[in-house]
TrEMBL record:
The protein, known as: Carboxypeptidase
Pfam families linked: Peptidase_S10
Signal peptide: 1-20
GO molecular function: carboxypeptidase activity
InterPro entries attached to this UniProt entry: AB_hydrolase_fold, Peptidase_S10
Entry keyword set: Carboxypeptidase, Hydrolase, Protease, Signal
Compositional bias annotation for Basic and acidic residues: 21-34
Region (Disordered): 20-41
């Protein structure tokens, strides 16, 4: 598929085709792809099998040669028994001689239950799926070189947690509780990262974690887990469309913080008064943010003690910013939930708006109701991503298996108890002077909205002593802001600048 492949070499251990092979064999190399033949009709999973290929991609006008390793690396229990195999794709730039100064970025997506496919072929990886400039699906399906990949400045490994992608538990007696919960997830993936860094000799490299959506919960917890349990210290953590990171808000504050997102969405769909629509988005939102923090949050916290006059005045302002009628706002006690907002904003046009990206429109069976029938944006994204990732892994990277690639896998019930990941990240930053944090948000994301992402930063660092190592960037798209061509170019450049900033000059001590 890619025209710029300069060499194709496969390394296969045991059963990269997904079938069993008698005994174990060491990784072998040949100049042609190999096919594993097996007489057994049973599909069996090998938790430790890889295939390697070599490629070149043009990034910002310069050729970047790289090696791609696709396969599985085990999760071991305390007795050294493999209890799961985690699928990964690892890209290494091959014209770099000194790995001690070459950054390594470890990439996770969210869910929980989602594979790493989204940022892999939609954001930072060396190939990019075939979509239009705003991120909508087009046919024919496919992929092409990603000229905005960050592989020019960092090696990258994309990780599929257990039961996502091609990752699986080994054996029927493995307890699900070892994997499917906030803290269990952090624990086993910390062990796995240690194994990966050791096997691929990356201990000397500056290290970065990037997570999207629930992946931000994961990497925030991992930052401290890697320090405390594996003595592995990071240079940076990137939070793409972050969750609340376990930071308590309270009912009133939680409701109020949604208004800036509502305002951004109403602006996009031209449902605000003309004086607001005449402003640029970046000029309009600070007014809404100030109203939210200084008027709306204190008012909602008064509850039933808020007098009728004040309530009417607030409803008028909320309606002005959000595009929702005063009547609906008053009926909901000044607190319109997201599901109702997605259904109500374009109700008179017979349309709904997307949850993860409110630029997307959907059509319901009936205009009545309090929530959309489906998530318009996620349907579009699954439409766009699923064929290319299956094509790419098998055809381009040579990882051939009869197992299905789980875009979303069975990880529920998920144990959410004990989520202190925001505090985990704060503590990791406090105890590691090298550690920097970058937050990236789309203005039209209604699941992990941009203003809550800002609020995370304010609450995570109440002393203000860490803020010079924390930064936030906003983009005019949604949850996966990188699917919009203009934002892909900008957001990847922000990643490059962040990585360079977070690596100290040689000999700089980590101290306050």
């Amino acid at each position: 598929m890619l025209k710029d492949i300069v060499l194709f070499i496969c390394m296969i251990t045991a059963s990269a085709t997904g079938h069993a092979q008698d005994g174990k064999s060491k990784t072998t190399e040949s100049e042609k792809p190999q096919t594993i033949k097996n007489s057994s009709p049973d599909l069996k999973f090998d938790p430790d099998a890889t295939v390697v290929t070599y490629h070149t991609v043009i990034i910002n006008g310069k050729a970047v040669p790289y090696k791609a390793t696709a396969g599985t690396l085990p999760v071991w229990d305390a007795d050294g028994k493999a209890i799961a195999g985690v699928f990964f794709v690892y890209y290494e730039r091959t014209d770099v001689k000194d790995k001690s100064t070459r950054p390594l970025t470890i990439s996770f997506n969210g869910g929980p239950g989602s594979a790493s496919v989204w940022m892999h072929i939609g954001y930072t990886g060396p190939v990019f799926l075939n979509i239009d400039d705003e991120g909508y699906p087009v046919q024919p399906y496919g992929y092409a070189p990603n000229q905005h990949s960050i592989l020019d400045v960092t090696d990258i490994v994309y990780v599929d947690p257990v039961n996502t992608g091609f990752s699986k538990m080994v054996g029927k007696d493995v307890a699900r509780e070892k994997f499917f919960g906030v803290n269990a997830d952090i624990k086993y993936l910390g062990d796995w990262v240690n194994s990966f860094v050791s096997r691929y000799d990356r201990w000397a490299s500056p290290k970065f974690l990037i997570g999207e959506s629930y992946g931000t919960t994961r990497v925030s917890g991992l930052a401290l887990e890697l320090q405390q349990s594996h003595w592995m210290y990071l240079n940076g953590v990137v939070l793409v469309s972050p969750t609340d990171l376990g930071i308590e808000r309270g009912t009133a504050t939680d409701a109020a913080l949604l208004l800036p997102y509502y305002a951004a969405t109403a602006w996009y769909h031209k449902k605000q008064p003309s004086d607001l629509l005449q402003k640029d988005l970046a000029d309009m939102l600070p007014e809404v943010e100030n109203f939210t923090m200084n008027e709306l949050i204190p008012a909602l916290n008064k509850g039933s003690f808020l007098d009728d006059g004040a309530k009417q005045m607030l409803a008028a302002k909320i309606a002005r910013y959000s595009g929702i009628s005063e009547k609906i706002i008053l009926q909901n006690n000044l607190s319109v939930g997201t599901s109702l907002f997605w259904k109500e904003l374009l109700r008179h046009e017979g349309l709904t708006i997307g949850r993860l990206d409110s630029r997307y429109r959907g059509i319901d069976k009936q205009d009545a109701g309090n929530s959309p029938d489906f998530n318009a944006e996620l349907t579009a994204w699954l439409h766009a991503f699923t064929p290319p990732i299956n094509m790419y892994l098998k055809k381009e990277l040579g990882y051939k298996t009869d197992y299905p690639y789980n875009m979303f896998g069975p990880v529920h019930p998920w144990d959410n108890k004990g989520n202190q990941t925001g505090e985990n990240l704060r503590q990791a930053m406090a105890t590691n002077p090298y550690l920097h944090v970058l937050v990236q948000s789309g203005y039209y994301d209604g699941a992990c909205d941009y203003f809550n992402a800002k609020y995370n930063m304010w609450q995570m660092d109440p002393s203000g002593k860490l803020k010079n190592r924390m930064s936030w960037e906003g983009y005019r798209s949604g949850h996966m802001m990188y699917l919009r061509k203009e934002d892909l170019k900008t957001s990847t450049q922000h990643l490059r600048e962040f990585i360079k900033k977070a690596i100290p000059k040689a000999g700089t001590p980590a101290k306050y």
